[in-house]
Write a structure and sequence with these properties.
This protein is globular. The chain has 2 domains: 10-63 and 82-101, Phosphorylase Kinase, domain 1 (2-Layer Sandwich), CATH 3.30.200.20; 105-343, Transferase(Phosphotransferase) domain 1 (Transferase(Phosphotransferase), domain 1), CATH 1.10.510. Helix 5 runs antiparallel to helix 8 (222-237). The chain contains 13 helices and 12 strands. It is 36% helix and 14% strand. It catalyses: L-threonyl-[protein] + ATP = O-phospho-L-threonyl-[protein] + ADP + H(+); [DNA-directed RNA polymerase] + ATP = phospho-[DNA-directed RNA polymerase] + ADP + H(+); L-seryl-[protein] + ATP = O-phospho-L-seryl-[protein] + ADP + H(+). It comes from Notodromas monacha. This is Cyclin-dependent kinase 8.
Length: 352
């Protein structure tokens, strides 16, 4: 490209600092870069957008994968999916800025507050209406993504990305990072997209999906459903259901003994009659060598949730069980979950 043309184009390009005030307003930092709370400099306001989240992407320039992800983000429009409003490119320093809707609070703060209260022996139960509304809105956002053949893949981090404002509208933040959590499914089949080993290693460290921990090489919509089940369980109990300290995960191998042990300690050891394809998992032989079924005979989701006063005859438990099926092929879909009887009984979920 002609140098003079590049300089001329850069000079004509709108600069983020000309439109928004954000100096000294950093509100966070993630793997993708810095996050600032921004306001328009011209003083104009929109009842729905008085403040914005401005994200500076670290690195120099845009990779092809980043361009594809931004293009996808700009196409997704749903009340429960955070909205990417604009992209700013800075030619001089090769910075990339993404302008999103701003949400004052996030679900992680709710979870953190209730965890701390429980740890201090002063538990504060998350109100049933809030649990149901948050879960329904998360499912609505995921159903929209899945309907458009997009997987979130990083829903385990939804606690720090699922936000609500004064109207309590929940948003799914679609992460922008070098690892590309979002995937657009180019084929319309139940199982798709062969994973690279690096993808699998990263996702299995942060997502306790049993099929990925056992070496499954394909993503399906079921990986997001398992993550939603984990979120639902924590909203009900105020503690992570399959907690395994990140520092304990020292291997880059998708197979992780301690994480599997934690899952089995809650769910029980998977039986072939319940998960027929488990014997086809790449690490099935290692699983059978490293674990003794008898060690988990007394473990079950029923017993785990009963300790948290969630009885098996409740509709909440019934839905949780459908979300946390060990066999990914048997997990409920987001659409089916939204139609579950749990959402038909009082208190009813709200869309706001």
């Amino acid at each position: 490209m002609d140098f003079e043309f590049k300089v001329k184009t850069a000079a004509q390009r709108t600069k983020v600092e000309d439109l928004f005030e954000f100096e000294g307003c950093k509100v966070g930092r993630g793997t993708y870069g810095h996050v600032y709370k921004a306001k328009r400099k011209d003083g104009t306001t929109d009842p729905k957008h008085t403040e914005y989240a401005l994200k500076q992407i670290e690195g120099t320039g845009l990779s092809m994968s980043a361009c594809r992800e931004i293009a996808l983000l700009r196409e997704l429009k749903h009340v429960n999916v955070i909205n990417l409003q604009r992209v700013f490119l800075s030619h001089s320093d090769r910075k990339v800025w993404l302008l999103f809707d701003y949400a004052e609070h996030d679900l992680w703060h709710i979870i953190k507050f209730h965890r701390a209260a429980k740890a201090n022996k002063k538990p504060v139960i998350v109100p049933k209406a809030m649990v149901k509304s948050l879960l329904y809105q998360i499912l609505a956002g995921i159903h929209y993504l899945h309907s458009n053949w997009v997987l979130h893949r990083d829903l385990v981090r939804i606690f720090s990305s699922c936000s609500y404002r004064g109207t309590c509208v929940t948003f799914l933040l679609l992460f922008f990072s070098s690892r590309n959590p979002l995937i657009f499914l180019t084929t319309r089949c139940p199982s798709f997209l062969l994973l690279t080993s690096n993808d699998c290693q990263h996702q299995c460290k942060t997502m306790a999906r049993p099929e990925l921990l056992l070496g499954a090489r394909h993503y399906t919509k079921a990986i997001d459903i398992w993550a939603i089940g984990c979120i639902f369980a924590e909203l009900l109990t105020s503690e992570p259901i399959f907690h395994c300290r990140q520092e304990d995960i020292k291997t880059s191998n998708p197979y992780h003994h301690d994480q599997l042990d934690r899952i089995f300690s809650v769910m029980g050891f998977p039986q072939e009659r319940e998960w027929e394809d488990i014997k086809k998992m790449p690490d099935h032989d290692k699983l059978m060598k490293d674990f003794k079924k008898a060690s988990y005979q007394s473990c079950s989701l029923i017993k785990y949730m009963d300790r948290h006063k969630i009885k098996p005859d409740t509709k909440a438990f019934s839905l949780l069980q459908k979300l946390l099926m060990m066999d990914p092929n048997k997990r409920i879909t987001s659409e089916q979950a939204m139609m579950d009887l749990y959402f038909k009984e009082d208190p009813l979920p709200t869309e706001e």
